[in-house]
Each structure stands twice: as structure tokens, then as C-alpha cells.
Amino acid sequence: MTRLHGLLIQAIAILALAAGFASPATAQSVERNILTGGPTGTYIQFGNDMSRMAAKCGITLNVRESAGSLENFLGVRNRPQTQFGIVQSDVLEYMRTFASSDPAIARAIFGVRIAFPLYNEEVHILARREIGSLEDLTGKRVAVGVEDSGTFLTASLVLDLAGVRPAERVTIDADTSLARLIEGSIDAFFYVAGAPTKIFQSPEIDGAALHLLPITNPTLAAVYVPSRIEAGTYAFQTEGIDVVAVKAVLMTYEYEPGRNAYHRESCRSVSDLSSIVLTNFKELQASGHPKWKQVDLNDIPPGWEIGNCVNEGLSETYQLQCAAPVPAAAPEPESIESQANQAYRARICAAVGC
């Protein structure tokens, strides 16, 4: 068992014990919750965008901060009243790969389903200016995210696949990583998020001292999606760089409406949000986080299934019960045309078109 595998099993045990899957007895107690990420990441902005669309229909979707992808995945599986979580695709791939040989992982993924594939999120590595490449992180102090985050898993896989051996892998969150990089107690840190992400918009980042590392290792290019962070994406970044990316997906649980009131109302919550995202998709692309423009709803990760409650909400016959009042249509202005002219216009339109 690798160190990463062991840490994953430990995280599964801790988070499962802390959450303890339970179904409230009454439908009246059911809340709608989505696990996202930290306050400066792209996940939480996507959660806020979906919550805003739901509010237009009188539906409350609570956006909850979290450590990231692994907590979100296990939260959907284990945490009561948590119907949604945003997760990185390499977390999904890692879990699926080991499910056949590890009962703990098999239990962790049981019942978890895809709601929507979302966008590609870039692997950011912010480093001291004198560090020129991923390979230069060998022997350095590198922050890799907290242990139950997607950043931690991705950073661990990237370093291992590229054969890079830092002197120390520091497990701290992104905000702490940035502060410690600026003060000089670490040499670089990983953060996986859709560009542009808020943490790298901090005015404290000095482009003369810090920069984003390119990620062009051929082994990684075969495992991850090649991507690019264009010049000017962040104020300190004057040149475009080639990196790799992972797919973010919205996860849910396979609720069974016939099981009990909790499952029935949770399935309704999943169906409602699915309908809201589909019917407001163009508005999300126009007014939400810029990454909505890159969302491909057809790009389902291999080996994973769409939830039945999701497909129910996407049905043409699905009736979304909005609590918000629908504004009455404005009355048509009274015509000042004579009845004769109206009759004429009607005949002309019927004969030759208007």
C-alpha cells in the first residue's frame, strides 16, 4: 500500500465516522446543502451561482465550505442532508481504480452518482522565482494541501508520477500556504482550482519574487488534461504557461424515493437543482463564474453513472414547483387601430404573411 493510499483510507475512516450516514425521519427537516471548498476557490463560486439560480425559484440551497474534493465526495455519501458536492475527476478515478481491491473504498463509493460534469480546473503551482520547473521542487519545501482535499491527492499524484521528491510535503490549506510562501518558510505550493481563482488575485503576490510553474512533464500529460493559463489571467502573471488540469464534477447520491420521506424529499431536491441548472444554463454562462462558459454537460467521467433523480429533473415532463411568485405578464397596450384596419391587417397576414 502506498503512503497516499494509506492516507486516503485513514481520511475515509475519519470522515465517515464524523459524518455517520443517517436519514432524518421526517421530510420536514430536510435541508438542501452543497459542499464546495474554501472561501477563495472556484467551487464555492459555482455553489453560489447555483444557489442564486435556486433562490429565483424560492428554493434555498445552502453553500457549505469544506476542505475540498475528498471531504465533498465522502460528505455526499455519509453526511445527512448533503445532496451535492463538487469533486475532482482524479479523485473519482483513484477511488474507482482501488474499489475492486479495497473494501473500504468500495463502501465509500457505493451509491454515489454524477449530477453534472463541470469544467476543467488547472493545477496551479506558485513558487519562488528562482524555481524554474516542476522538477526543481526536488529537495524543496512544498505545501500540498490538507489531507482530505483534492489538492492534496492531485499534488501527491503529480509529484509521484513526475518522480519529484521534495524535502518536505507540508499539509496546510491554500491561504496558509500563500502566507508562508510570502514569508519564505516554504518554497512553493499546489492549488487545484479553475482559473481565474481568487487566491491568486491577491495584491500581496509580487511577480518579481513569485511565479506560476509550467507543468509539461510527458507522463503527466498522458494522465491529465493539457491546459494553459493565459498571460494576464492574474496580475502578477505576464506570460502564458502550459499546465495540466482535472475535471470538476457535481456529485450526488442515489436516493430511493420509495424508501422513506427523507429519501423522497432529497431526491426531489436533486431533481429540482438539475432542472434549475438546465433551464438556467445560458444565464449561468452569462452571469456566473467565467468557468461556466467551459462547462460541457456531455463530458461524463468514464465508469460513473448519472443519478436517477438527476434524470427525473431533466425530463421534459418534470414540474418544478417554484415557491417564488411568478410575475404577472404586463398587459398588452390597447390598439389605437380601427377595427377595419385590424381586419385588413389580419387578412393580409393570412394571405402573404406579416
TrEMBL record:
Signal among keywords: yes
Q: Which key words are in the record?
A: Signal
An example Pfam family from this entry, by short name, is NMT1_3
Q: Is Nucleotide-binding among the key words of this record?
A: no
What are the boundaries of the signal sequence?
Answer: 1-27
Q: Which Gene3D superfamilies match?
A: Periplasmic binding protein-like II
The name on file for this protein is TAXI family TRAP transporter solute-binding subunit
Task: Please name the source species.
Answer: Albidovulum salinarum
Upper classification of the source organism reads:
Bacteria, Pseudomonadati, Pseudomonadota, Alphaproteobacteria, Rhodobacterales
